[in-house]
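Please produce the structure of this protein holding acetamide.
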Amino acid sequence: MKIKSFFIAAFLCLTVATVPAAGTNTLALIPWPQKLTIGAGVFKLTPDTHVYVDLASRETGNCLSARLRPSTGYSLATRTQVFSSKAVKGCILLTTRDASTNLGAEGYDLVVTPGSVVIRAPTQAGLFYGVQTLFQLLPPEIFSSNVVRGVDWQMPCVQIQDWPRFKWRGLMLDVSRHFFNKSEVETVLDAMALHKLNVFHWHLTDDQGWRIEIKKYPRLTRIGAWRPSVGFGFAPNSTTAYRPDGDYGGFYTPADIHEVVKYAAARHITVVPEIEMPGHSTAALEAYPQFSCTGGPFAMPLTGGIFNGIYNPANEETFKFLDDVLTEVFQLFPDKYIHLGGDEVPKETWKNSPACQALMKQEGLTNEDQLQGWFMRRMEKFVSAHGRTMIGWSEILQGGLASNAVVMDWIGGAKEAASAGHDVVMSPTACCYLDFYQSTHRATEPRAATWGGALTLRKVYSFDPMPANLPSQLQSHILGTQGNLWTEWVPNLEHAEYMIFPRECAIAEITWSSESSHNWGDFMRRLQIHVQRLDELGINYRRASRQTLEPN
Ligand code: ACM
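Below is the modeled complex.
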């Protein structure tokens, strides 16, 4: 018997040794892990499989069991293992005990053998990501919301050590041009979690709509959250975001925001709210024109573009208003970063305003760019004084900036910002703008933003978030990358999903996986299986048949 076991073991070792590395195996993990070894055999999930957890990991264990239930029909019991961190025969163990601290704040070890599954991580975020990988080791039907019969719920034996390349792996959703309700936002968060994405940038205010209820200024949502129609040339029935009187729009109450933030936190996703200033503020100024330079009136535009809804920095009351708004924002959003926009400010209004010109003279500012710098620095001080960190688009670099502000590079500035000590999030238009066409064959695509070129899946995948030639001592300033979905041309969730996926799958891989593992051919191979997961989840991604139209 012993001799027989020896030969079986020797055969298995041989099998392990001859399994090819990533690129030709049958695993379809997205994002691809840092280190993976394939073993022989499989672990089979059965109705008797238990989920063991240490005391700290009960919630993550419950999340695993809950996710496995609808498709398998198994109600896996969760048991707490207090004194040991050893694998349990026939079971899945999630534990923080004896985890390698080298894995960092988001890393995990995952070992699947025929006898057990163990996910070990120093943090719950790491365990959560290990669980996401576990789901992807199972057949794609695991994501079905109904019981699927005739599927072997088994996963291949593997040993995985994994951690992200970047700490900022994000998605921006513009809810101003099109309003997505709370449950739609939660759908987006679920899809992010599947891809180990961890920053949801919520673009809450812009010219075309103000989406966050502020108790002290009720007109912001009474007036600023509703426009006469969906606009942008869309057929009225392209969206459902209407109230009974036919006005288009919507907003989030503090309770909605609380729920979304909690929902995101349970998926280890940070929510970064964006409150635009000093430009892109027509909706706010339609509600409160006294904080503008001209006094109004303003009307929310029904088209895209740059509009003159811009705050008046020469009026102290403007800052009182903005400070009050942010005070409520701080209460609703517990995380570190607060995005204040700062992009595309039309400066003509300030040029033509005697009060603004007098302020510039008084402050020794020689042009309106400097006035914008003065404005953003003042707001940055307020944000910092409340223990938060301000983020803004590229233009916040104009006119000087406190070094702890973070720059979101959309039109350049990353190197300059990192050299000046700022952290940077990369979201250059050419590689990260998910509102751009996905193909050069525009006629085959739904209407998208025309001002950019085509942003193909391959182009996103080819993007290296680390700017070329950035000196190594500055590289830690590059926090990561995000895809940005502006919604001028996106009137509903189904269409948003079409624009986000599969391009955001590529963002997930370039932000998580090591640069050396990036391999377009292998990514496309894995994507063919990954989209079966998206199918099960009912996510409306852009189909592969269209992708094949792309020239390489
Ligand atoms: C931007 O696209 N205006 C940041």
